[in-house]
Amino acid sequence: MSWYRNAVWFLKGLREYTRSGYESASKHFVPADLEVNVTGRSFMITGANSGIGKAAATEIAKRGGTLHLICRNKERAEEAKSEIITETGNQNVFLHILDMSNPKGIWEFAEKFKTEHKLNVLINNAGCMVNERELTEDGLEKNFATNTLGTYVLTTALLPLLEKEDDPRVITVSSGGMLVQKLDVSDLQSGNVTFDGTMVYAQNKRQQVVLTEQWAKVHKNIHFSVMHPGWADTPAVRSAMPEFYERMKNKLRTEAQGADTVVWLAVSPAAAKQASGLFFQDRQPVATHLPFARTYSSPEEEARLIEALEELSQRFKPT
Ligand SMILES: NC(=O)c1ccc[n+]([C@@H]2O[C@H](COP(=O)([O-])OP(=O)(O)OC[C@H]3O[C@@H](n4cnc5c(N)ncnc54)[C@H](OP(=O)(O)O)[C@@H]3O)[C@@H](O)[C@H]2O)c1
Fold first, then answer.
1. Of all protein residues, whose CA lies closest to atom 7 belonging to ligand 1?
2. Is 201 one of the catalytic residues?
3. Cα 128 to averaged position of ligand 1 atoms, centre (Å)
4. Which ranges in the chain belong to alpha helices (H)?
5. For this UniProt entry, which segments traverse the membrane (predicted)?
């Protein structure tokens, strides 16, 4: 089954996820969707110093939004912040240093943020593919801690703030790679299998899709979406997938092309008219499963994911 899934997925990717896939999909875009002024609205983007996150932040800043950049490295973050300000002329760009693999730190950050700021849109973009099994200081597997638990804790902690605002949205940058994985809640820390970073990453990205669907069911007044940026030429792809990068480098999307649907989901009135909880690619809701791939999960499995994340997140919540 994994051979079948990988082959179908890769062929799909060659057609849709590449730069030419973007160019052909973009013929159907409505340019007016992004001709908006979001002055007065507040956007938080994790992993905003680089790649898709930085490109999305720049586009939102051009449209007047107030930006809260969440980055783990102060030097890289300061550089990105000043580049965004210089390029857009928007001075409302604020920096917060936070490691998304540290759940306690995320809780503390969010509690403080809530007392000082408002928030209309949260963009969960930070992500990693660590190819060796590495544990955080809390003993959590690094990919899971960053991609799944970090996303869960930050979103959960900020929901009350988002709920106070008009047209609140949560966008999570997942990956089409999740299509090769069925949700698996039996081993969230990947401690019981031969470790394969690509598959752990794909599993985390599947978890983000399920999480988004579950949030949308419960929090009706917030618009949730999850998306695939396509295959874009970013530092993460170069460093975590060097062979894929060498093979595909002439076909990859630009960072801005990868960020296009993030920006569309974050700012356009058209995106908010779509149902909450969907998975997007190139401004369209798309299927969350490959045909005949047997990746559907049961409601019980999905409930178990939420239970496990809730239990873990509470363990790190400061009292
Ligand atoms: N590029 C693609 O083809 C592609 C395809 C599918 C999905 N995605 C997803 O797109 C998102 C953005 O990735 P990208 O391709 O734009 O790569 P990128 O340029 O390397 O950006 C990843 C960002 O996440 C940050 N980050 C990673 N771990 C973090 C942590 N523990 N705490 C805080 N920030 C952390 C990175 O910070 P540092 O600079 O400090 O490392 C960086 O800012 C990711 O979720 C990725 O999975 C990308």
1. 175
2. yes
3. 6
4. 2-16, 19-26, 51-62, 74-88, 103-116, 142-143, 150-163, 197-218, 235-240, 242-248, 255-267, 269-272, 299-315
5. none
Q: How far is the CA of 16 from the centre of ligand 1 (A)?
A: 21
pLDDT digits (tens, 9 = 90+) for 136-194: 999 999 999 999 999 999 999 999 999 999 999 999 999 999 999 999 999 999 999 89
Average pLDDT over residues 66-79: 98
Query: Residue 159: CB within 6 Å of ligand 1?
Result: no
Tally of domains within the chain: 1
Give the tens place of pLDDT for each residue, 256-278.
999 999 999 999 999 999 999 99
The CATH number of residue 103's host domain is: 3.40.50.720
User: What's the pLDDT tens digit per position in 212-229?
Assistant: 999 999 999 999 999 999
Range of the domain at 273: 2-315
The 3-state DSSP class for residue 285 equals strand
With a 6 Å cutoff on the Cβ, whether 105 touches ligand 1 is no
User: What pTM did the predictor assign?
Assistant: 0.98
Q: Catalytic residue among 4, 201, 245, 296, which?
A: 201
DSSP characters for 51-88? HHHHHHHHHHHHTT-EEEEEES-HHHHHHHHHHHHHHH
